[in-house]
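Minimal example, chain plus protoporphyrin IX containing FE.
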Amino acid sequence: MTDFPERPPLYYGSYLKLDRLLSCQEMESAKLGRPAHDEMLFIVVHQAYELWFKQILFELDAVQEIFASQPVHDRDVGRASRALGRVQEILKLLVHQVDVLETMTPLDFLDFRELLYPASGFQSTQFREIETRLGLRRDDRLPFDRMAFDQRLSEADRRKLEAVECRPSLSDQVEAWLERTPFVDFGGYRFQETYRAAVSRMLGRDIAYIERNQAISEEERQTELKRLASARERFDAIFDAARHRELHARGVWRLSLRALQAALFINLYRDEPALQVPFNLLSRLMDIDETMTTWRYRHAQMVQRMIGLKLGTGGSSGHDYLKAAAERHRVFGDLFALSTFLIPRSTLPDLPDPVRRAMAFTYAAEQV
Ligand code: HEM
């Protein structure tokens, strides 16, 4: 049937190395002669996380290999999207896994918590690798204390992570891929002028609404107007290299000018056949960013329930640190910010025929 060589029949337990896997749950409390029942759950849940982290990294290997090739083949982008879709499903599972851990009460946790010092999930090297591979940079990180985030890792883990930091992240790779997107300026076409006018009108309407709104205080009005002024500033920078350079230096936009324009174009004209695969890819990245953030908040809530205002075993302020990290540790924030500048399909400038034809699937091109 197959051309695999003959070999002895496989046995479930030996294939999965269950002897080894199931002998890795050693309770510290039991070693000290005071077994705390919930420590087993604590260990198993953490180990299950680490196994899923391993699978996420395995999927990221495949995705990053695709984006490392030059040029990236269109058919492979669909494959990358599917792998990222799998990462997203795993992350959703990881959010729900917190529910299982929460069946442990704070008092149950106190039966063994002090045995954990100074270990903490903060030292999960695989989690740090996922963050770094996605594109979280050292400088983006919330300062923990005066030490760098990796100073609590072993020397070997630190070196491993430094090697990961030296390689392009998925965010870098997607940026380079976006920069090569054709069509944005295709055939001398400039969709900018009409589109910019439509967005300006939209923002102008919002400003007029806020100025007229009697239901808000003067202070709220000024805050809202400031927010819209900064949205306009961000928008203008998408079409102006000098302004973009300035905002990029301030960290307001992370993506390069060309990559931002391409991401915007893909979002606006995502119904065009040639843009559907890139649109899916960008959507998967947003899913992952969003679900990582959901996990961070969920973990922070669970920590608050479990230890209240106590410090973490790793030495942080605990819940406060985790909540602030959830807000700050975003990688694909630019893609979310671009939604500000989406306008209804009915007001979107039509693409010139040659551009639409070029973006249709070949077998459908005749009907365009
Ligand atoms: C009773 C359960 C848990 C408590 C009380 C807890 C508490 C904490 C605290 C306080 C921190 C901040 C660092 C520190 O001071 O230690 C932290 C960080 C972290 N924990 Fe947990 N944790 C729990 C379960 C888990 C689980 C099941 C995982 C899954 C792997 C996990 C993964 C992490 C990660 C990755 C960080 C670093 C987050 C970051 O820096 O953004 N934790 N945890």
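The pocket of protoporphyrin IX containing FE is lined by residues 45-46, 49, 101, 109, 120-122, 124, 127, 299, 303, 306-307, 312-316, 318, 321-322, 325 (CB under 6 Å). DSSP finds 17 helices and no strands in the chain.
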